[in-house]
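Ticket opened by: R.M.
Priority: normal
Category: complex prediction / small molecule

The reporter submitted a protein together with zinc ion and asked that the result be attached to this ticket for the collaborator who will pick it up next week. Submitted input follows.
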Amino acid sequence: MTRLADTAWPSVARLANAGAVLVVPVGACEQHGPHLPVTTDADLAVAVAEAAAAIDPLLVVAPVVAYGSSGEHDGFAGTLSIGRDATEQLLVELGRSAVGTFAHVVLACAHGGNAAPLRAALDRLTGEGHPVTGWWPRWGGDLHAGATETSLMLAIAPERVRRDRAAPGDRRPLHELLPELEVGGVRSVSPNGVLGDPSGARAEDGWALLREAAADLSRTVARLRDGAAAAGRSRPVDRGEPDPEDDEQGSEVPA
Ligand SMILES: [Zn+2]
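Result attached by the on-call engineer:
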């Protein structure tokens, strides 16, 4: 598995020259009920990206975008939101920069509240001709800090789940909640911050969801890589010659 965090630039250049696609996990820092850490969305975005990278040596995982648009969780301690405009601009600048190295870039987002700024950023990036794509896991299930996200966190970081504090919140579906959420945020419908019911959460269910999402992400990446290769996408900057002395990633990169 290749993380940018473990990789020096000559190795990055070699991966990019071999057609690697960059996946940027996009998360948030916001309340996830009384039992899950506030970094849950960022943790899940990283977990999916890394699980996909584990089955695809030409999928490179970028450091996570750990903050996003979380205004709907205002009023809960630990929610650190940078808002819609800043999230959009951050993703636009990141995308513009990343396509200087990689033939395709995927913004893999695990926080529903980032959907609007992410779509706006993708519109701008694709309008400028940049090969940047958005991807979302389709977890299904309940909405926020319920059985779905709790199962996922039990799979990847059980030591950070406070099961003894897990309690149901508002269990209505999104279309029923939305009018109230738009006016008063999560605080107005669920005092404990949960939208769903975490009590039936199981690590096995989390692993199954994670595997499914990772397979979907790796298929998406493979398709985009093939498309970039077929288009003979030229790189806008000189990314350096492969370094024959550099074998950090050598065993992982197909010839
Ligand atoms: Zn979440």
